[in-house]
Amino acid sequence: MKKLYEIIAPCHFGLESVLKKEIYDLGYEISLVEDGRVTFVGDEEAVCRSNVFLRTAERVLVKAGCFHAETFEELFQETRKIPWEELIPRDGRFWVTKASSIKSKLFSPSDIQRIMKKAMVERMKEAYGISVFPETGSRYPLRVFLYKDQVTIGIDTTGESLHKRGYRPMSGAAPISETLAAALIMLTPWRGDRILVDPFCGSGTFPIEAAMMAAGIAPGMKRSFLAEEWQNLIPGRYWTDAADEAQELMNTSILTDIQGYDIDGNVVKTARANAERAGVGKLIHFQQRPLSALSHPKKYGFLIANPPYGERMEDKKDLPELYRELGERYRALDSWSAYIITAYEDAERYLGRKADKNRKIYNGMIKTYFYQYLGPKPPARKRTEDENL
Predict the structure, then answer these.
(1) In the structure, how many helices (H) and strands (E) does the chain have?
(2) What's the Cα-to-Cα distance from 320 to each of 36, 202, 261, 347, 352, rounded to whole Å?
(3) What is the CATH architecture of 5-156?
(4) In the chain, which end has fewer C-beta atoms inside a 10 angstrom radius, N or C?
(5) CB 238 within 8 A of CB 48
(6) CATH superfamily of 178-219+252-373
């Protein structure tokens, strides 16, 4: 018999509605939506499918408990009440890998981590009848959220963040993560049979994520997950079933018009290599091209971009001209829509037009705005005689 869990999926602040729709589309019931995370109800299979299929979640956590605590004594006692022996085997490796606190009396992450670990040990000593834990088995890292003195604890099933799809092996900070890029595309009306162009493609994240959506490629197909090593909570067959489902839904024989440009030829080569690793190399046209050469002969396309916004002071002097040129090139595209994410505060001024919609999104600790310029809808396609039969 399958066991039901509450499952917590953290996401970028401001994109909860996108993740909520994804979870609904997977067939699960939402129980709570908060800033930066969505909680839903599902079984062991749901844990596996969420890790494999969710494009906008950062990770998937099995909820272990939730309680109110204003003192460290309350934190200790309430943590100890949780039946950890039902979640973690006697040889399991367990620790609080991250604790965050907002508007709560308990705010020291290191103290929260230490006291909760101690409480778990005390509980499991009694439950297992042992005084020393070998911690030689599978890993069970915990993530703890404190908000207005309410403590929520989740066991991480994912391991490395879900933005690590496996197609971008280079380490270091990226301008935009895969999960954020996917969420921004989902905020547009774009579909796989429509034109999409990124004139600042960098490592190719926007075009690759779009191509994966168009081809039905699950974002977690080419990676592993921490909970695959668990022997107690999630039977291995559910991971196999999720992988088989992903394989059946994939279709790379489709036709697409997805393009990525960048002024740096070496960057374009990297983007092509990343697309090949993602399995969508044939679905994207990458080209070394300056912004001044941005054009397209067809109507009703989508421009999506993460242009520079002057992270360094010496770069800011070039931004007015760059955004002015971007605005000019966009206006030259007939009946197109444009979607631009940036932290540059004067973006609308130099783009030459106030956005039709504007959404505040946190990219890590950076407050950015997603400016949305809505073009006209294309005319409805005429149905063929075959479709009328």
Answers:
(1) 11, 14
(2) 32, 20, 20, 8, 11
(3) 2-Layer Sandwich (3.30)
(4) N
(5) yes
(6) Vaccinia Virus protein VP39 (3.40.50.150)
Separation CA 102–CA 145 (nearest Å)? 8
Q: Which two tokens stand for residue 256?
A: 């697409």
CA distance 283 to 276: 10
Q: Which two three-digit tokens encode residue 148?
A: 């207005």
Closest to 156 in 3D by CA, of 110, 204, 96, 213 = 96
Q: What is the CA radius of gyration of the chain?
A: 23
Given a cut of 50, the residues of the chain with pLDDT beneath it are 171-173, 383-389
Q: Distance (Å, rounded) from C-alpha 76 to C-alpha 69?
A: 9
How many alpha carbons lie under 13 Å from residue 309 in its C-beta half-sphere? Answer: 20
- Kindly write down the DSSP assignment for every residue of 123-175, as one continuous string: HHHHHHT-S-----S-EEEEEEEEETTEEEEEEESS-S-TT--SS----S--S
How confident is the model over 272-292, as pLDDT tens digits?
Answer: 999 999 999 999 999 999 999
Give domain limits for the chain: 5-156, 178-219+252-373
CA angle 152, 54, 281 (to 5 degrees): 145
Contacts of 131 (CB under 8 A, 6+ apart): 125
Report yes or no: 47 and 157 within 8 Å, Cβ to Cβ: yes
Residue 170 vs residues 44, 164, 325: alpha-carbon distances, Å: 32, 10, 31
What pLDDT is stored for residue 169 in this prediction? Answer: 83
Which parts of the chain fold into alpha helices (H)?
16-26, 44-53, 72-81, 109-128, 178-186, 205-214, 236-249, 265-278, 319-331, 347-351, 385-388
Q: What is the pTM of this model?
A: 0.94
- Residue found by looking up tokens 């999104």 in the block: 361
State how far Cα 360 lies from the chain centre. 16
* Tokens read off for 338: 């444009």
Q: Which two tokens stand for residue 85?
A: 């022996």
